[in-house]
Amino acid sequence: MKIAFHGAARTVTGSKHLLTLKNGKQILLDCGMFQGLGKETNQLNRDLGFDASAVDVVILSHAHIDHSGLLPKLVKDGFNGKIFCTPATQRLTSILLEDSAEIQEEEAKFANKRGLHQGRPYQQPLYTLDDAKRTIDRFEEVEYGRWFFALPDVEVMYSEAGHIIGSACVNLRITENGKQTHITFSGDVGRYRDVILKSPDIFPQADYIIMESTYGNSLHDPADSTPELLLKWINHTCIEKKGKLILPAFSVGRTQELLFALNQLELENQLPDLDYYVDSPLSIEATEVVKSYPQYFNKKIQKIMQTDNDPFAFKGLKYIKTVEQSKMLNYQKNPFVVISASGMADAGRVKHHISNNIENSRNTIVFTGYCEPNSLGGRLMAGVQEVGIFGIDHQVHAEIGSIRSMSAHGDYEDLSQWLACQDPQQVKKLFLVHGEFEVQEEFRRKLLKKGFTDITIPEQHQEFGLGME
């Protein structure tokens, strides 16, 4: 058996891990899109690094685009098998992929319109809406905690990951020549004290572990401090400076956390009397999906729902659906708060809001999660004084901030707790993926002290044999 890492290798995006069995069957764990890597992003997304038609089955951990976003390209390039996922992941991924396909088509159209005058070759979209719809037809839903056969001699069970609604860790039992090998892929590990979701679950003893490591060297601020920090930024920007507060946020997970925190402030009679906009049709749709799975919420929020039937709604909340409504926000002079996708500010309506407000010192842009260093969000958080947006250079006069308590990724303590159910002496090899290399090296040193003996940080497209120790 072999495993090859075709994404999320020494970076936090593009999750793709390919298992090849002795009989030639291939299992793909996630098929994510690369995001925020500058000029190389496009080429990385166009070259999967393997033959899509040779893949027999996909096991999807969760809906985020950096884990699911290249599924339509996989189908376009010849994949003809099933895509397994949890029910909530199926619904969320469906709307995310259709949205992504529309973006691919629009970006190709824009590039070709501009390139026509510069003599550049015609650019095909990465995939189309039809590709996305054909992909969605391949989904097969499986509930948590149930072993099922993805292929003959390949059993899979999903365990709760606590990252976003429907997110799962993938546990595999693979039988070859009468010998069973246990492999666990973490997907993205959430937080054990998440304000909305259940904590990650324990999982069976594994021979091999493929583990995310985004925050493997750091600790988050307590999650219960989020409403307090959010209130601080609202008062500072909208009340004191009379400006606009822009909150870039991913449509799935982060937007709902922000709405829940604002709802908490209203319940405590602390929420300032302002307009609060969610400017992202995708975020609106995703919020409705999240609301439809209350069984995945933790006990605390389920108790809140006994007296508050919608913990994601509050006075002053307005949803922006059309492009025209979004543009009108540029002419509103009164202070307000806008939550808009995407979280790294590399695409979506939030990029327009930043472009229109970044040169005014009264305004504030507060990032609510991880930003890849080369993304617009990453550069702003690094303190650059000038950024190019839509081909126009902007001086950065708006205040830039962040709320570190909001990450849906577990920190060092969460990742350690996730691993605590394992006997390190029985783990033959632990692969660290989905993290920056410097972070992974530090995390590796910490794990060695915990008794894990063989910890590897794969490079892009690197392949390893399993069961050859």
Automatic annotation (TrEMBL):
Segments forming domain Metallo-beta-lactamase: 13-236
Alphabetical list of InterPro entries matching this protein: Beta_Casp (IPR022712), MBL (IPR050698), Metallo-B-lactamas (IPR001279), RibonucZ/Hydroxyglut_hydro (IPR036866), RMMBL (IPR011108)
Residue span, Beta-Casp domain: 255-380
Key word Hydrolase present: yes
Keywords: Hydrolase
Record-given protein name: MBL fold metallo-hydrolase RNA specificity domain-containing protein
